[in-house]
Amino acid sequence: MRRAWASKAPGIAGIVRVFGVELDVDPLVIVFAALYALAGSLWQWAIVFASLMVHEASHAMAATGFGYAVARISITPIGAVASLEGEIQSRPEAEAAVAMAGPMTSLILASLGYLLLLYGNADREKVEFFVGANIALAIFNLIPAFPLDGGRVLRALMAEELGVASATRKAVALSRVIGITITVLGAAGFAARYFNLLMPALGLFIWIAAGRESQSAAYAGLKSVMGKRASLRARGSLPARLLVAAPDVTACDLLRKVTSSDFTIVSVIGAGGGEIGRLSELELLEGISLLGPDAAVREVLAGRKD
Fold first, then answer.
1. H helix and E strand count, the chain
2. DSSP letters along 7-73, please?
3. Which fold is adopted by the domain 239-303?
4. What pLDDT, in 10s, does the model give residues 197-216?
5. Closest CA to 287 of 265, 264, 255
């Protein structure tokens, strides 16, 4: 449910290391457990909490499979958050796979629980709750809205064609629409006594989280380019994509067209139809930093030659 590669401040309870990974335990975990115990619902909270932990752990395991180290695991009252080293959104296929690992794991857990209902001899009430909780967790996380897994899959799919920055903006816009819709429907349902306050609260949560994600959209393209620079150094080679542009196009406009999957080379074509120079996406970024976002490609070329 929580973002599987988010950063988070250390909890009050402090940090310990387990197998080289920082484990940050929020003291509210103990408070929540005590409150649920007093209400006689400790086992329901424990099942949901454990399911969330496994859900988030699957994100971390999938990320390590793509070469992203887990820097920290933060344990909160509503689950765990794995903080990764590196910008995974610069690799759409990795982001999509890591995001899908959570819902798929929840569905596997629900299936195992269902088999236990059919062939096991466990407490039926608790197992049924376990199955329902994991199905709900999987379905909820597949909603195509930030910060849910479905929102990250959507961004990854669009980033292949649009680039990370544009894909993030479009995914944020859809997330806000979904958040408003859930909030309005939930509030109407609450007024009609069909729902409790959980549904409008979830809609509000999506709206707020989408707003936070939009703040990073401006830096998404930059992070993508920097991520590919690191990948180029580590791997030695990357697949390339050629983009043709006129000299008067701004470097910033071209940078928005940079995709996440390939390293972009820009061929600048003059008025006579001939190529007057080439720029890599790294040179575009450098040109923007030196000349400003409105600098034309011809200026970036001239500055590079100087």
1. 10, 7
2. --PPPTT-EEEETTEEEEE-THHHHHHHHHHHTT-HHHHHHHHHHHHHHHHHHHHHHHHTT--EEEE
3. CBS-domain (3.10.580)
4. 778 888 888 888 887 777 66
5. 255
H or E, element range at 223: helix 198-235
CB atoms closer than 10 angstroms to residue 150: 21
Give pLDDT, residue 219.
62
How many beta carbons lie within 10 A of that of residue 77, not counting itself?
17
Q: What is the DSSP letter of 245?
A: E
Looking at residue 216, its pLDDT comes to 65
Which residue from 157, 122, 117, 116 is spatially nearest to 43, judged by alpha carbons?
122
Which amino acid is located at 267 in the chain?
A: S
Residue 288: what residue type? Answer: I
Structural contact between residues 70 and 84, judged by C-beta atoms closer than 8 angstroms: yes
Asked whether 179 and 207 are in contact (CB, 8 A), the reply is yes
- Dist. CA 96–CA 100, nearest whole Å: 6
Q: What is the pTM of this model?
A: 0.69
Separation of alpha carbons 206 and 78, rounded Å = 16
Identity (one letter) of the amino acid at 272?
Answer: G
Alpha-carbon distance values, 125 to 38, 57, 119 (Å): 20, 26, 15
Domain boundaries, the chain: 12-142, 143-238, 239-303
pLDDT band at 77 (very low <50, low <70, confident <90, very high): low
Instruction: Please state, for a pLDDT cut of 70, what percent of the chain lies above it.
Output: 81
Instruction: Report pLDDT digits (tens) over 21-40.
Output: 667 777 777 787 788 788 78
